User: Fold this.
Amino acid sequence: MRIVVIGAGVMGCSVAHALSERGAREVIVLERAVPGAEASSAAAGILGAQIESAPGETELFRRARDGYRAWAESLRRETGIDVGYRQCGALQVAVRDGDAEALVARVEEQQRLGLAAEIVDGAKARTIEPALADRIACAAHFPEEAQVDPPALLRALVAAVARRVTMRSGVTVRGLAIEKDRCVGVLLEDGDVRADAVVLAAGSWSSLVPGLPASLPEVKPVRGQMVQLDERPPRVRTIVFGDHGYVVPRGDGRVLCGSTMEHAGFRREVTASGVATILNKALALVPSLGEAQLTSTWSSFRPHASARLEGPSPLPGLFLATGHHRNGILLARETGERVAEALLHS
Assistant:
């Protein structure tokens, strides 16, 4: 069975990895640029199952987060690459009026589901994270939330996948090959590739592939700008969320601060306004970061759709793994497993 995967980001590589683990050997991964070098590597890497999940999705998100520990170790054994998995916990703080009530409701719901979560006052929050701002009155503490380092994760995934399947970079997909209302491969600039199944995992570029069913929700890019600081010695140790901003300490002195949510098309600029907004929110959460060195800024695109696109599509032979917006890193392994199962048992 020949399978073509369009896109070598975290979703495409996760699907290819899951397929190869199930014995699929004739898998071809196509990437227009460099495998693993687009939005996947630019993410913050927060495994925020409890902070990010919407009603009805908490169990899926928890399963995705909790599966990372074993996955990270498996990738390390296979490739020798440490993907930076750390269960560092997270604090979601109440900044504006009304935030505390919403936090209490979230924690109570998660406690009913048997998840580790508690409301803590400002004093206890600063015991958990001493660098937290004094003005924080209360916070929700989620001790099991975790993180990975996305560039390291993508290096490991690409290394693992490249050993098992065929990867082609610098390839432009002109469209889907469709015969008798079925997807039978992809059309390339340098020759077509026929396949028994095609997986669309092109992130924010997914809807630009010609031949997709008109009924599919459009995947649009949402620009996210990021700022990296370096504090020495490292002080911050817990992920901190508040007022649409967050701080992610890597543990080695690097601290990622994010992020904007901009409908700017495919414009990749890092703007003065974006950086100022991010830093203002980060310093409001952790004032001591004002003394840290600003070492890097970047931006990339979250693939946003009205619903995540996973599994079989309306077009026979075409499967989907895109539209994960803010949660692509978190849901990568789980999505890869589910899409591989659906494809091999279709």
